[in-house]
Amino acid sequence: MNDGLYKSYSFIMKNLGFDASIAAFIKKLNIRDGSYNRILDAGCGTGTIGMALAKRYPEASIMFTDINKTLLDEVTSKGEKEGFLSSRLSFAHADISSPKTLTLQTNKAVHLSDAEFDIVATGAVVGYSQNQKKTLEELLSLVKPKGYFINIEMNQGFFGSIVSKKYQYPVMPLAEMESIIKSTGFELMSIEVDTFPAKLTRTCLIAYRR
What we know:
By secondary structure, the protein is α/β, with parallel strands linked by helices. Helices cover 36% and strands 27% of the residues. It has one domain (3-27, 36-209): Vaccinia Virus protein VP39 (Rossmann fold), CATH 3.40.50.
């Protein structure tokens, strides 16, 4: 996605209600009771999912990663405005094609380990990977036992297809994505996003690691 599309994406998400409706959906998402202390928002974009999870789990630390520095700076500012302690939030540059390989804001290179996070969340970003299957498998490997993978993915309906085309986002067929998730031993639920306007373009895959 070029810089012009990034700016367009950020404007639409914030000003047409998509961020707010995704946050509302995350707030009421049915997740088993548990201690979720470390959360990753991979390919965070405007940071909506990670911020919503930070509010839902006030004891958790949240790591935000994205390939676009401008978006990461915006999410950093958003965290400050929301009043989150800086110790709870961390930010890193990462290409979704290699989601385990990060560069922190201090320029320190980091490689994430398997089973490092209680929740790994993404929002319509896997499609930008050069190898979507590999990316999905790496993201799933980061989830601890009794943890979750949450993907607020583009749906394949009329509006979802239009938006995917506009943002040059090649959606993996959801049936294929579901098959990969199940093959790694996760319990999978496919849930309709029911908050407007996000429900026009998004669906939710939520997977629990036994």
